[in-house]
Amino acid sequence: MRLPITILILILYFSSCKEKAEKKSEPKVEETQLQSQPTERVNLTKVPDSLELIVDKNLIGDFNGDDKTDFASLVKNKKNGKIGVLILNNSLNQESFIFGAGKEIDQMTDLNWIEVFKTLPKGEIVLPTLVDEKTGDIIGQDESKSFKLIGNGIYMSVEESHGGGILFWNGKEYKWYHIE
């Protein structure tokens, strides 16, 4: 009598282990659905042939405030070796904008100093920094010249410094804002 009961207990034990193993290997439906959401795509064939994308310095965001996913990247001009920023708007005509890489922006044609390249949230308030013109010392924030970003801004700076700039859409065109 003991032997049949022991065998029955062992069978029940091993079958319950098998059920637990099978449950662990089942994919979670919720996670799979979250990972497969459709995303908008920007046509990267619109990148000018004279520019080379810098692979690890790409951003996506709504840079012009039209609620469509746009693309931005640091680029290298193949002809002159200068670094710049390319923005591709996800619009009907897939407009592209180049800053630096040989084209002047805020008296700069080469943005090779950029180490930090990231997006700023849409709607963020940007406060200009007041700088003493004689000494170059930072005085503080100039709240009288603050503005709200219409789309995501593109923040660029040097790692060990707070200087740099923001590319942002003002409703008509992209503008550069220098930050100390």
Walk me through the topology.
Elements: H1 2-25, H2 29-35, E1 51-61, E2 70-77, E3 83-88, E4 96-100, E5 116-120, E6 125-126, E7 129-131, E8 138-141, E9 147-148, E10 153-157, E11 164-169, E12 174-179
Antiparallel strand pairs: 1-2, 2-3, 3-4, 5-10, 6-9, 7-8, 10-11, 11-12
Summarize the structure.
The protein has two helices and twelve strands, in the order H-H-E-E-E-E-E-E-E-E-E-E-E-E. It is of the alpha+beta class. Strands 1-2-3-4 form a four-stranded antiparallel sheet, with no helix packed on it. A four-stranded antiparallel sheet has the order 5-10-11-12, with no helix packed on it. The protein has a two-stranded antiparallel sheet with strand order 6-9.
Structure description:
The chain is an alpha+beta fold and 180 residues long. It has two domains: 2-35; 44-179, no CATH class. The protein is built from two helices and twelve strands. The strands form four sheets. A four-stranded antiparallel β-sheet has the order 1-2-3-4, with no helix packed on it. Strand 1 and strand 2 form a beta hairpin. The radius of gyration is 27 Å and the shape is globular. The termini are far apart.
The strand order across the widest sheet is: 1-2-3-4
How would you classify the helix and strand content by structural class?
Answer: alpha+beta
**Helix proportion:** 10-25%
- Portion of residues in beta strands equals 35-45%
Order of helices and strands: HHEEEEEEEEEEEE
**In this structure, how is the largest beta sheet organized?**
4 strands, antiparallel
Low-pLDDT segments, ≥5 res: 18-39
Question: What general outline do the C-alpha atoms trace?
Answer: globular
Helical run tally: 2
Q: From the alpha carbons, calculate the radius of gyration and give it in angstroms.
A: 27 Å
Average pLDDT over all residues: 78
Count of distinct structural domains? 2
Q: Measure the end-to-end span.
A: 87 Å
